User: What shape does this take?
Amino acid sequence: MLDKVEAADVTGLMAELGQRARAATRVLATAPASTKNAALTGMASAIRAAAPDILAANAKDLEAMRANGQTAAFLDRGTLTDERIEAIAAALEDIAKLEDPVGSVIASWPRPNGLQIDRVRTPLGVIGVIYESRPNVTADAGALCLKAGNAVILRGGSDTINSNRAIHAALQKGLEAAGLPKDAIQIVPVADRAAVGEMLKGLSGSLDVIVPRGGKSLVARVQTEARVPVFAHLEGLVHIFIDKAADATKAKEIVLNSKLRRTGICGALETLLVDETVADKLLPDVLEVLQKGGCEIRGDELTQRLGKDVVAATEADWTTEYLDKILSVKVVSGLKEAMDHIAQYSSCHTDCIVTEDETAADSFLQEVDSAIVLHNASTQFADGGEFGMGSEIGIATGRMHARGPVGVEQLTSFKYQVRGTGQTRS
Assistant: This one.
């Protein structure tokens, strides 16, 4: 398939993908768990067998990204290695081990007239996933949607198009081996941006929901233009607050891991808030270790006095998801000011408090209105796999239907099954 086709052809192509996906849902909705699990384990085997081809495809993508001057963090997100390919395969096997949500009874109750009412999980239908620069999402999204009985249309970023196609080819081998329709997991075969526009229109009623996973501009476009429901995955403007009752060693380790383990993921720390009563003794050491790790510090006036080579923070720094070795730092008067700052600037993704004061921790966990709120743990645990969900399509930051890691349960809806014995209504 050519990467660029005429606009009319893109419209026709996308409509066809939608129709094929809709047809596949009729099979998937009633597919037994054993068949779906066989497909998932087959996909894992196919991924491992195709590792050389996937790495070769990824090398082409990385070469193009370097030629286009992409940042180190962006390159990290797009890079595949033997270890990361094995992690992709292992995630598929983990998803296969999860309880099948389809058909499970969420709630059940009898009525005085003898009717028995069950609320039962059902697939959503056809899901469109639009994502950027993370080839592992191709496998994660495809597998999670399949497990939940949904067909999926994947539109990955052009930067990793070769990697995405290579992974998708392995996924289809797993589907075929299990006797499931290959149209259950489709990938948009063109890089033309018009394809995204067609998905946002809903593919003439074929798409039931869209999941965007990418930068602020992508999510904003999807939320503005989509004519179907959206599970919004907004930027990860992640905060850590070091409380006055924090353990210094624990605080340093959590901050370092949260920021520097992988800077290009949505759970990476972007703003550090420190209680003024412990800033003098704690902050200089934390800043020094961060800087030794290559991290640039942008701080308020007190942070600049306590650290060396600290760049003056601007208002824009409190609203920036760097996805790089840059951290904004602010000294605050206490828990209330920290939570006020988070309320003003947070993207409602992930926020953390480091403290040994259980009362302060409880206040933070209850009052900070983010999808994920942590106490004394790295923000890099903001991940569906780490939550025991096998994997995730993304972290939903909205408040409707799905919030936090979007896994198999979040990719289902429900219906009511009502059983009677001949009752009629008066």
